[in-house]
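User: For my dataset I need records formatted as: sequence, then structure tokens, nothing else. Please produce one.
Assistant:
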Amino acid sequence: QLQLVESGGGLVQPGGSLRLSCAASGFTLDDYAILWFRQAPGKEREAVSCISSSGSRTNYADSVKGRFTISRDIAKNTVYLQMNSLKPEDTAVYYCAAARRSLLSNLCVLTTQPAIQYWGKGTLVTVSS
């Protein structure tokens, strides 16, 4: 079965950290760029990070740059999003998505979304004291 499953969300205080996981099954990460999106209540979905199919290119939205780090473990077929120095405005449902390897997807230009083949169901992150 082809799917992405996110985990690692939860409640954290401002300034705290969380690590989200995105486990892929039924396909290999070598063939897909992986993106993390988030959607806060009443707001549009926002692309926050991307890692190319080779793992050599990453990118971040300005709102998270310097605080979030995307990485992957090929052996586990899993992508991670390490989130540090969390702020209340980071509160959102976080989704991972897979875009088949292409010139566009591997550029990881967050303002130009590539075609997405698979979406996860999301994990909720709440940053509150």
